[in-house]
Amino acid sequence: MRSIFILSILFFSQFLCAQTEISGRVVNVKGKPVMGANVFIEGTYNGDTSKEDGSFSFSTKASGERTLLVSFLSFKTTRLPMLVSNMKALNIVLKEDLNALDAVILNAGSFQAGAASKVSVLKPLDIVTTAGSAGNIIAALQTLPGTQVAGESGRLLVRGGEAEETQTYVDGLRVAQPYSASVQNVPSRGRFSPFLFKGISFQTGGYSAEYGEALSGVLLLNTEDEAEQNKTDISLMTVGLGIGNTQKWKNRSLSVNASYINLAPYMLVAPQNLDWNKPAESISGEAVYRQSLKRGLWKTYAAFDASRFDFNRESVELESKERIDLKNNNFYLNTSYLGNFGDRWELNTGLSYGYGTNHINYNTTKINNSENAFHLKLKVSKRFSDHIKLSAGSDLFSSKFDETIEQPEISTFISDFHTNIGAIYTEADILFNKNFALKLGVRGSYNDYLDETRISPRLSMAYKVSNSSQFSFAYGDFTQAPKADYLKYNEELSSEKASHYIVNYQFNKDNRFLRLEAYYKKYRDLVTYNGNENSYLTALQNSGDGYAGGLEVFYRDGSSIKNLEYWVSYSYIDSERKFKNYPVQTTPNFVANHTLSMVTKYWISNLRSQVGLTNTFSSGRPYNNPNQDSFMSSKTKSYNNLSLSWAYLLSKQKILYFSVSNVLGTKNVYGYEYASSADSNGNFRRQAITPTADRFFFVGFFWTISDDKKTNQLDNL
Amino acid sequence: MEKIILILALLFTNLIFSQNNYDEGMAQALELWQNDRPAEASDLFERIAIAEQEEWIPNYYVALVNTTRAFQNLDNKNVEDLVAKAQEALDKELNKDPENPELLVVQALIYTALIANDPMNNGQKLSGKVIQIYEQAEKIDPTNPRVILSKAQFEMGSAKYFGTDTQPICDRIEKSLTLFDTFKSEIAFYPKWGKEQAEQAISQCGK
Q: What angle do CA A577, A480, A569 make, to 5 degrees?
């Protein structure tokens, strides 16, 4: 009887339990109401969605000490343990989630291309679909501000710096030979296939203490962490063919790529400005292996390529043409591990090895050289809170260079050097709040070949002024050992130095992105020499200096006109330097004061086609005319290149691609080469440095075969 | 003895109570969704999901409601937030049961929303993934009508665009219709959607 009594009390008590009214308001740190927050008592269904004024109210049968949860997308879930009876007229302040996508970003000097679209300037596919880039990562980056048109070298020239001043890193590890082999005035390409990288960050100044040995810029390429699917890619091109395959297993995947390029058939149809004995031919392969482990990800990337070409070209020095024959072999291996350990510790370590050999014949002169380069990296970071992250790391760069220059019956010159550079760095990332961030770092390095120690401070900060705009500032000191061409002759040199000061403003709203950047860069201790050419005889010393200052504008719009995406970049640069054998400080021959690029991509749905147009203009570049008294006082005419591309989707997996560079056939001149001595009339003869072909045509067919067997079998059922 | 009865009774009433509570809560959330109040529906599903950790259905609906909202808000910057919300809820359940075909369908729908929102950048990247997820789901349960239908509809889009034969796809939509009639689940509030879409799709197959 008693138990029935209790039972019925129990049963009824559940119904009779007093209802408590809960109410309050949700606001953000600025006191503004937050609409759409989910406010509820943990473990019950009782709750409410906050209204436009931030208010909420609901009733609950819960009593005693319970936890009130407030969740909202970009805010941290707030937990408020308290007595239910006290949950009245609450004022709940939501703290911002500092990891959310819209927090302020330190980005003075940098361009991101990656999946996190809110901060991306370029998307991964842009590399392939930019007209004129022909799948070359470097060519696509040359449409961004801060770079120079460098048709004769094909390399990245950043803000008044030479090509060597920009270093390339794959998964955080240095690539010693990032460009395909080439000789003077024949453009090279970036070695890397754009399809293997999920993210590209191009930094034209003010970069983190993690990166050293670069005076002007760093290009950071990150391979895909995970393969999308099993597939085979086949490409047939007018210049060669390629095949790729990806296999995916549960925790690992392997992608391999191989390609064979031969320009011979193309040359038959479209003759070039060079007279080829053996058109450019190369065979290359790449492989990426990824393995996800319990605590982290292990990736290995390897690339091999062998290329050769042989041509004759007009020489300003000789009556007859000069013959150049080049054979290059290159191997790059990189293995890295990124792991997360408990309590927000992160470890990033890896090793890279690059091996390159060149066999070059200039007429009868034989040059053989080889470079072995290692990079060993270890970096540890610890996030102490959402506000503070500290990292520290070390690098060991080791490189060995050997060269033999043989002039039959005249001389044989052997040079070699071996450098080891050890560096340590530490950096603090401080996020004061969602609107203000600071990064402070310092890097110390020791170079055993030059026997010198360098300390380089780095600082960057960003302040968000509104939801869509922010200012950033960066300062840094950068050092870099002189290039191999100098080091092989002289070990008394010291590192070259640069200091960067950058101010950046950016505005980003509804798929429109505006970025303005002004910078000033001061160079010190640049290498100089006497005489016409750098050699072991010519007093090499660090007595040069220089500066670069400029203003850059980038605007990208993907929403104003349906199906049209375009970006415009403009760079103004004022730069002078005294280096090499320059008698005075002046604007070097690779710097054009104004550069304007426009890239457009238009998707025509009816035609299943994407049409791309890229136009690049740059003002004239200085060159030195020895027939005139003053040094570097002449200027070339301006440069213009309009490229067109057409990608047609034959089916979901087959693409036909067509492109032409320099559609208008503009006769572009990069500069002039002058004879080293005057002819009988007292005149120095000259020869224009021009593109290897005025126009370049490309037709390719790309076919992806994905693992669809299961579909087919089921279709037959 | 009395104590045991008491404990049993207590357990029992609570069990009934909790079950009723769950049913009522879910019914109420579904009703909110039907009455075009998806934000509140999603919030209620979320509350239920936190209270009933062993049930996967509430988080399934959090994901489905927000994915549906994403499809209705294409070309709008909210898409990313909605997709993030859906993915977060879905991940909680996929981590517990990565082989649940209903969860896999929602995962494919989330990717499809991203493709629809930015075809130029996500099309190539995610299309293969979507197909792969559907294939996986179909292998796990070839009789699930939502798997068959969603996959067919995804393929229909590209088949129409490229002008390839849609008949095999229509046949599979037809097959999904028969599966909708026979598909049974013992689980309360198990997903039921799809039959109307299938009927509508089949009507456009020229039948």
A: 60
Beta strand pairing call for A65-72 and A38-41: antiparallel
* List of residues 6+ apart from A293 with CB closer than 8 A: A251, A339
Q: How far is CA A235 from CA A284, A335, A477, A656, in A?
A: 14, 28, 44, 10
Residues from chain A contacting residue B51 (CB–CB below 8 Å): 42-45
Bridge-based pairing state of the strands A217-223 and A166-170 = parallel
Q: Which of A558, A717, A708 is nearest to B158 (CA)?
A: A708
Find where tokens 């955080």 sit.
A172
Of A59-68, A479-488, A568-577, A696-705, which has the strongest mean pLDDT? A568-577
Q: Compute the average pLDDT of residues A75-80.
A: 80
A270: tokens are 């479209």
Cα(A668)–Cα(A688) distance, integer angstroms: 9
- Distance, in Å, from the CA atom of A535 to the CA atom of A418, rounded to the nearest integer, reads 18
For B22, the closest chain A residue by CA position comes to A45
pLDDT digits (tens, 9 = 90+) for A219-267: 988 888 877 678 888 888 888 898 989 898 888 999 998 999 888 887 7
Q: Which residues of chain B fall short of a pLDDT of 50?
A: 207
**Structure confidence by residue, pLDDT tens digits, A99-118:** 555 566 767 777 766 544 44
Q: Using N-to-C axis directions, what is the helix angle for B145-162 and B101-117, rounded to 10°? A: 30
- Rounded-to-integer distance, Cα A93 and Cα A98, Å: 15
Mean pLDDT of A312-333: 88
pLDDT band at A269 (very low <50, low <70, confident <90, very high): confident
- Is residue A447 very low, low, confident or very high in pLDDT (cuts 50, 70, 90)? very high
Do residue B47 and residue A603 have CB atoms under 8 angstroms apart? no
Query: In this predicted structure, what is the pLDDT of residue A443?
Result: 97
Taking an 8 Å cut-off on Cβ atoms, the answer to whether B161 and A608 are in contact is yes
- Residue A608's nearest CA partner among B69, B92, B162 is B162
- The SS3 assignment for B168 reads helix
Per-residue confidence band for A713, with pLDDT thresholds at 50, 70 and 90: very low
Measured over the CA atoms of residue B51, residue B55, residue B56 and residue B61, the dihedral's sign is negative
Separation CA B190–CA A616 (nearest Å): 58
CB contact under 8 A, A73 and B131: no
Is A229 within 8 Å of B13 when comparing Cβ atoms? no
Confirm if A210 and A673 have CB atoms less than 8 A apart.
Answer: no
Contact A334, A323 (CB under 8 A): no
The one-letter code for the residue type at A442 is V
Question: Cα distance from B169 to chain A (closest Cα, Å)?
Answer: 9
Backbone angles phi, psi at A184, to 5 degrees: -50, 135
Nearest residue to A350 (alpha-carbon basis) of A362, A335, A360 = A335
